[in-house]
Amino acid sequence: MLLPLLMACGISLQTGCSDDSSVNPLQPHRPVEPPRPGDLDDTTDPDRVVVTYTEDLEAFPNPERGFYTSSIFYLKNGKIPSPLNPVTLKANRTQHRTLILAEYFLTDFIDKPLSEAALELVRKNMQIMRENGTKCIMRFAYTDSQDVKPHDATEEVALEHIAQLSPILHEYGDVILVFQAGFIGTWGEWYYTDNFVFNPQTEEDYLPRRRLIEALLKAVPTNRTIAIRTPKATMMSMGLDAKNLITEATAYDGSDRSRLGGHNDCFLHDGNDTGTFSSKADREFWKNDSRYTCMGGETCGTSSYCACDNSLETMAQYHWTYLHINYHPQVIQGWKEQECFDEIERRLGYRFVLTRGDFPREIKAGEKFSSKITLKNDGFAAPVNPRGLELVFVSQSNPSEQFSVKLDEDPRFWFGGDFVTITTDFTTPQLRSGKEYNLYLNLPDDAEQLRENPLFSIRTANKDTWDEQKGMNLLHHFIAR
Known about the structure:
Blueprint: E1 6-7, E2 12-16, E3 40-41, E4 48-52, E5 66-74, H1 86-94, E6 99-105, H2 116-131, E7 135-141, H3 155-171, E8 176-180, H4 207-219, E9 226-228, H5 231-238, E10 260-267, H6 280-289, E11 295-299, H7 308-317, E12 320-324, H8 329-338, H9 341-347, E13 352-360, E14 368-377, E15 390-395, E16 402-406, E17 419-427, E18 436-442, E19 466-467, E20 472-479
Parallel strand pairs: 1-16, 5-6, 5-12, 6-7, 7-8, 8-9, 9-10, 10-11, 11-12
Antiparallel strand pairs: 2-17, 3-4, 4-13, 13-14, 14-17, 15-16, 15-18, 18-20, 19-20
Helix pairs in contact: 3-4
């Protein structure tokens, strides 16, 4: 358990924001043969020390990003399926995966309320995820076959199901990466539908969908995104157009508008991703909003659009955070053959790389501590959910002796392609004279239930900095005066 937080003062952050028109997101600047972590650069100030860090190009698990696997639960023929197997979740981590698609087909309940056993399955699965370092993309639907009717429940039944699920979603919202709107149509993809106006054209046609979105916004914690299958569906349902864009000023402000994202389940299939896009305005809407919400999904077949150069560029433009590892298998295999799979695996979501740290050469309790830490985000996106940020001093002789300094910055604004400089200026905590201390950068989950679980903390892509037990990134070490 960390000692009470010491609030930092005079902390600032600078970012070098990329712009699609002037910066190629596929070519981030990389230091040339940087020294190993802990090596010291020359500095003209005798009271300062500069540390450079070595980038690690290997893949590793990090929370809320990356390839995901699918876990499907069919509630039909009077049967409640078994919950998640922790062994499977642990095996996923060995493959660098911390996400699953938790997809529920509520076939038996298409015309009636969910049973307590059905609700308990959802609750149990989320508890298992919390215990095993996993988060989910969550979706509910009623059928996975367009040949089976009805394709979905009535609006009244769907809204009742959402109301039943709401207490569970709020209790375990910390293990939800993003909530896909679902409920409507086959697979919950908002197309083949019997009860929500098939092929809607007007805002009036979209009103049932709007009511469902509004119910989901209330049923899911306010710091989570609701992902809708197409940008047109978002705009028509909510009375928006391409001018109603999320901005840096309105992002994460808790408003309904700030929480509307998208998911593309026919990524790179053709010129409009099999109906995902209906206009250039649709594309611009998602390019902008995905910078501040959450974008992901799956591919659905091979095409020339799946070539590596286009795939990487498009993932950067739409800020992709998550992608199905098993679908479409030919697309995944093509990336492996074209030798871009490894890069995609590394860059889905965020990928923070420490580059340089500037620290006092000596530290003493009660004196000023100023530092400057530089990193880059080599991923396609920023983190999409709230994230803690702090410096932690840990005694080498007594690791239980820890002092944390909370940094008042938001990593959700560390966008893909950006360089970030965190400048701190605070009073050194009560370190013991003559004792050695390690200084760590900690990016824990913001949720109270997960904050001290290292499985949910962000690891930087550097060699010899990650402390797996603590879930923190080593920056430097000091002897306190």
